[in-house]
Amino acid sequence: MAKMKDRTLLQKLQDVMKPYLASYLCWYYSDPETRISWDDLCKQDMNFRTTSGENKTEDFCEQNWLIREDVQKGMIIYMQHMKTYNQMKVYQSMLAKALTGDVNSAKYLDDFNSRLDKMAMDNKQEQSEIDELLKGVQINSGD
Predict the structure, then answer these.
(1) What b/e string do you get for 23-49 counting C-beta neighbours within 10 Å, with b at 16 or more?
(2) What is d(CA 96, CA 88) in angstroms, rounded to the nearest whole number?
């Protein structure tokens, strides 16, 4: 079975919304201290500009774009992505503490790893069941 390609957050967002909205959503949720300026973001796509060529305001985009159904779906994708990212950061932090002798961090890692192992086993079992169901199935290409 072919392995699925890893995809960036921006690629996942672009599956449910237009690229300029995906860029805006990533910009909107990024740290205001480190993200590019509004003017620089507006230079990336003409959809950030009015018909007269001026930049749309941040307020306009926030009030009109964040309420769109496609952007709402994108918010869920973004939050799920960040949840995974932050779990990874917590895991790394707990590992560093556990390596210095922190017992509570070591217990956390043990529980976390047990859950990961169970999830991996469940996934293997599901894949085995699918493989078993497909055993002997012939698919004609129609040629």
Answers:
(1) bbbbbbeeeeeeeeeeeebbeeeeebe
(2) 12
Chain centroid to Cα 116, Å, comes to 19
- Is the Cβ–Cβ distance between 4 and 58 less than 8 Å? no
Q: Measured between alpha carbons, how far is 68 from 60 in angstroms, rounded to an integer?
A: 13
Per-residue model confidence as pLDDT tens digits over 59-115: 999 999 999 999 999 999 999 999 989 999 998 998 999 999 999 989 988 888 888
Per mean pLDDT, which range of 4-8, 39-43, 122-126 is the poorest?
Answer: 122-126
pTM, entire model:
0.70
Q: How many degrees, rounded to 5, is the angle at CA 25 between CA 55 and CA 30?
A: 100
User: Residue 1: is its pLDDT beyond 60?
Assistant: no
**Nearest-angstrom CA–CA distance, 34 and 137:** 54
Question: How do the domains of the chain map onto residue ranges?
Answer: 9-86
Residues 6+ apart with CB under 8 A from 109: 91, 94, 95, 98
